[in-house]
Amino acid sequence: MTDPEFESELREQRFRDVPSGWKTEILQAASACRQAAATPEAGRWREWLWPNPLAWSGLAAAWILIALLHLASTNHEASRAEGSTNPETLMVLENQRRLRNELLQDVQPPNPPSANRLQRRSETSIYFRPV
Question: How many domains is the chain partitioned into structurally?
Fold first, then answer.
């Protein structure tokens, strides 16, 4: 069948009438959807999230990721070990605390510059340096 024959057959066909019950069903379903969308709760959320829903979902995903990373980074082993009565574990924890304290005692803050080392900007020059 060629294109002109097909088109001529289509022109000869008559349209059927739409069943009368369909129109009422379609209109009832549309009005139910409109009423569901007009509820105050759905409207408030939609208005609040409407500017950029992808940004809000991305922000929620970022907060969830931050919370998961925070939970993963906390040291639950030390808190569990302190409650246990295992002497080996307590000894290891005590050694770790002792080593940490020793390392922190070795670290000293840098000395602040003394007052006599400071010069005014007007006393220094790029081209002339006093000897």
Answer: 1
Q: State the residue range of the domain holding 97.
A: 79-105
Please report the DSSP string for 37-50 in residue order. Answer: HTSHHHHHHHHHHT
Sign of CA dihedral 120, 122, 127, 130: negative
* Residues 104, 101: Cα–Cα separation, whole Å: 5
- pLDDT, mean of residues 54-79: 84
Own/partner long-range contacts of 14-22 (Cβ < 8 Å, ≥24 apart): none
Is the residue at 38 inside a domain? Answer: no
Structure tokens at 16: 């059927």
Residue 83 within any structural domain of the chain: yes
What pLDDT digit, counting tens, does each position of 15-53 carry?
888 788 888 899 999 988 887 766 666 667 777 767 787
Which of the 8 DSSP states describes residue 115? G
- Whether the Cβ atoms of residue 73 and residue 62 lie closer than 8 Å to each other: no
Query: Does residue 72 fall inside a structural domain?
Result: no
Whether this prediction's pTM lies above 0.85 is answered by no
Q: Is residue 27 part of a domain?
A: no
